[in-house]
Amino acid sequence: MFPVVRVLIFLLLAAAIVCFGLYLVTRQPRYFRIGAVIVKWTVIAGLVFFGVLIVERLVEGRGPAAADAPGAPVVPASGASS
Q1: Rounded to the nearest 5°, which phi and psi values hold at 9?
Q2: pLDDT per residue over 21-67, tens digit each?
Q3: How far apart are CA 34 and CA 11, in angstroms?
């Protein structure tokens, strides 16, 4: 699923670049508006995507506080001699 989302975000950004390029060539403001709307919704979709990743990580217990949880495995620091 995640590779599909990444490809969709890339395609949306490419479409916005094409719209801005068309605006530069034709000077028609509708292309600029379309490009701006595409960028706005792409950013919103990206924030939602990363929000879902963060919530998923917190729910699964892999967040930053998970290492301090009781029963968490002790991982030796790198470079520590045994």
Answers
A1: -65, -40
A2: 999 999 999 999 999 999 999 999 889 888 988 999 888 876 665 55
A3: 14
Amino acid at 1: M
Phi-psi region of 72 (alpha: psi -120 to 50; beta: other; left: phi over 0): beta
Question: If you count them, how many residues does the chain have?
Answer: 82
CB 34 within 8 A of CB 12: no
At 66, the amino acid letter reads A
Q: Is the pTM of this model over 0.70?
A: no
Dig out the tokens for 3 from the structure: 């590779």
Report the half-sphere exposure of 8 (CA within 13 A, side-chain side): 11
Q: Which helix (H) or strand (E) holds 27?
A: none
Token digits of residue 1: 């699923």
